[in-house]
């Protein structure tokens, strides 16, 4: 990630502001971000001495996702689909029609002022800076991003634009854009806020970009080689062997895997971006806990949180060492607690009967959870979004067995290796299509979230061996990265509100919109009774 100290003037559209935790920093919240609109063509007020700036591209929409923040979509084409190199998205803080943060001004953190006879939340004098966390969710190449704030003066109304530094991002990278508001003259009225996307080079002109913009940071971890731990697999997903030179020379040190994830939310979501893994190869994507429990301790940590919605690896103390271990393999009917959990609860606190256990316990439990899987392309690359809402036992190929209704979706991959191009192979095997799916471990499908609590664990990639041996490997761990996050409990509506027409436990403009849909509708029978 490269930071470019470039302060280019931009007049533009704006997005919303936020709940403030630091008295001097104006931050953001989801409600305002969700109100982003296309910012092209917004110019400065005629009272400004600086010329306005037009943006050529388009902001095509937003989408609320799990956890803090909203996905914002940019398209670097003009109105007639010609490729361009810039776009902007945002929201005006104040609008001539009197809209005050679309009705959300009181929660913006801005002070109340009277402007042109209207009471509006525009006063930003209590803030030294504006902070906008974001990360680059998807796109075809590097982009340059920056933020701006347009402020107005209390007397004479002169607009001033202040810009953040420009930051170059590759897919999966994040940053915090900070705009210094201390240089704004007079009593600062916040007018506009915007996030600009520019093509870093010609590769991105005409392309689509998705930024995830939120009030809570989305973290990024670069995974590292796990190191030798089991037999590696040297066959691709179609059981085709890599050549001897590749087997002897490849290391996961050569791979680049970046995982993004939200640090606080009711679910864990993010994106995995990988290059130079094994080509045409199936991997499990999982969470791995760290057993920290000691005898007499009642704090079982995030290891237990993962295991109770995942799987358990059990080891027993033999007096001088732990056994290699084994999976607890009775998943029952998929509900929780399952039979494996019952075994865990019965044994987790048992004292060491032979002596010498480093934990004082007879058994040690390592929790893990396979929640996703993928097949790399012919270059060993893969990119996908994920949400941790499933739990799988193991992966199967559709040639081994057919997926059931509770199993995961089939990931299908068609490829035709050419040794003259794909140097990992010596043999031209012809075209192959392989399907892979996850066998369920816990149910319901798409409904197994993470238990509320604080997590410190590893994100882990494991090779899928498909119950083979020899060159087929034995579920070797490939890459890992330490992550920390918090899962919040589900919100409760207590008590329910009678005027809450859309059942979101809030009464707001959305409920008024529901009333508008049926305004003046009358279903009395007979119909003439409607006119009484």
Descriptive account of the structure:
The chain is mainly beta. It is about 5% helix and about 35% strand. Strands 17, 19, 21, 22, 23, 24, 29 and 30 form an 8-stranded mixed β-sheet that branches. Strands 1, 3, 6, 10, 11, 12 and 14 form a 7-stranded antiparallel β-sheet that branches. Strands 2, 4, 5, 9, 13 and 15 form a 6-stranded mixed β-sheet that branches. The model is unreliable at about 1-20 and about 40-45 (pLDDT under 50).
Structural key phrases:
single chain; eight-stranded mixed beta sheet; seven-stranded antiparallel beta sheet; 30 strands; 7% helix; 36% strand; globular; disordered N terminus
**Mind describing the biggest β-sheet?**
8 strands, mixed
Report how far apart the termini are. Answer: 70 Å
Low-confidence region ranges: 1-21, 39-43
* Record field, number of beta strands: 30
Percent in strands = 35-45%
Secondary structure category: mainly beta
Quick one: overall form? globular
Mean of the pLDDT scores?
86
Assembly state (oligomeric)? single chain
Rg, nearest Å: 28 Å
Number of helices: 5
User: Percentage of helical residues?
Assistant: under 10%
Summed up:
With 532 residues, this protein is mainly beta. The chain has helices spanning 30-33, 244-249, 301-307, 339-347, 509-517, and strands at 2-4, 25-26, 37-38, 58-64, 70-75, 86-92, 111-115, 118-123, 129-138, 143-152, 159-163, 166-169, 174-180, 189-199, 208-213, 218-222, 224-225, 256-262, 264-265, 269-275, 282-288, 311-316, 326-327, 363-375, 382-387, 391-397, 411-415, 432-442, 453-463, 477-487. Strands 17, 19, 21, 22, 23, 24, 29 and 30 form an eight-stranded mixed sheet that branches. Strands 1, 3, 6, 10, 11, 12 and 14 form a seven-stranded antiparallel sheet that branches. Strands 2, 4, 5, 9, 13 and 15 form a six-stranded mixed sheet that branches.
């Amino acid at each position: 990630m490269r930071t470019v100290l470039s302060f280019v003037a931009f007049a533009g559209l704006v997005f919303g502001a936020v709940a403030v935790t630091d008295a001097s920093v104006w931050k953001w919240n989801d409600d305002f971000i969700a109100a982003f609109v296309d910012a092209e063509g917004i110019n400065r007020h005629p009272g400004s001495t600086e010329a306005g700036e037009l943006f050529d591209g388009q902001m095509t929409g937003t989408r609320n996702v799990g956890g803090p923040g909203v996905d914002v979509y940019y398209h670097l084409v003009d109105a007639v689909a010609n490729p361009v190199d810039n776009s902007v998205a945002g929201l005006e803080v104040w609008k001539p029609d009197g809209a005050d943060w679309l009705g959300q001004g009181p929660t913006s953190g801005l002070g109340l002022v009277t402007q042109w006879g209207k009471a509006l939340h525009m006063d930003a004098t209590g803030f030294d800076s504006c902070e906008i966390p974001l990360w680059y969710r998807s796109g075809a190449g590097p982009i340059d991003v920056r933020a701006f704030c347009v402020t107005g003066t209390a007397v004479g109304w002169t607009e001033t634009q202040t810009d953040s530094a420009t930051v170059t991002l590759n897919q999966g990278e994040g940053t915090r854009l900070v705009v210094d508001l201390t240089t704004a003259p007079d009593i600062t009225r916040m007018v506009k806020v915007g996030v600009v996307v520019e093509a870093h080079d010609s590769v991105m002109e005409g392309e689509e970009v998705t930024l995830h913009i939120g009030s809570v940071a989305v973290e990024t971890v670069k995974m590292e080689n796990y190191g030798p731990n089991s037999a590696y697999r040297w066959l691709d997903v179609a059981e085709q062997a890599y050549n001897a030179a590749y087997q002897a020379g490849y290391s996961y040190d050569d791979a680049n895997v970046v995982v993004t994830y939200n640090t606080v939310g009711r679910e864990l979501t993010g994106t995995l971006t990988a290059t130079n893994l094994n080509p045409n190869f199936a991997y499990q994507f999982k969470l791995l806990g760290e057993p920290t429990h000691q005898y007499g301790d009642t704090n079982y940590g995030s290891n237990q949180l993962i295991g109770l919605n995942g799987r358990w690896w059990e080891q027993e103390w033999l007096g001088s060492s732990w056994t290699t271990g084994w999976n607890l393999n009775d998943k029952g009917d998929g509900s929780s607690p399952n039979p494996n959990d019952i075994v865990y609860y019965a044994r987790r606190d048992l004292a060491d009967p032979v002596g010498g256990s480093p934990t004082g316990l007879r058994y040690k439990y390592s929790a893990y959870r396979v929640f996703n899987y993928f097949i790399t392309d012919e270059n060993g690359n893969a990119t996908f979004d994920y949400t941790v809402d499933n739990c799988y036992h193991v992966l199967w190929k559709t040639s081994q067995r057919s997926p059931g209704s509770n199993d995961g979706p089939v990931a299908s991959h068609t490829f035709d290796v050419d040794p003259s191009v794909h140097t990992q192979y010596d043999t031209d095997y012809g075209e192959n299509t392989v399907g892979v799916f996850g066998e369920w471990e816990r149910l319901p499908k798409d409904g197994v979230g993470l238990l509320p609590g604080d997590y410190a664990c590893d994100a882990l990639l494991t090779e899928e061996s498909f119950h083979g041996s020899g060159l087929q490997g034995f579920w070797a761990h490939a890459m890992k990265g330490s992550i920390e996050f918090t899962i919040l409990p589900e919100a409760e509506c207590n008590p329910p509100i009678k005027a809450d027409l859309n059942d979101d436990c809030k009464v707001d403009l959305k409920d008024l919109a529901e009333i508008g849909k049926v305004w003046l509708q009358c279903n009395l029978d007979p119909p003439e009774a409607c006119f009484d």
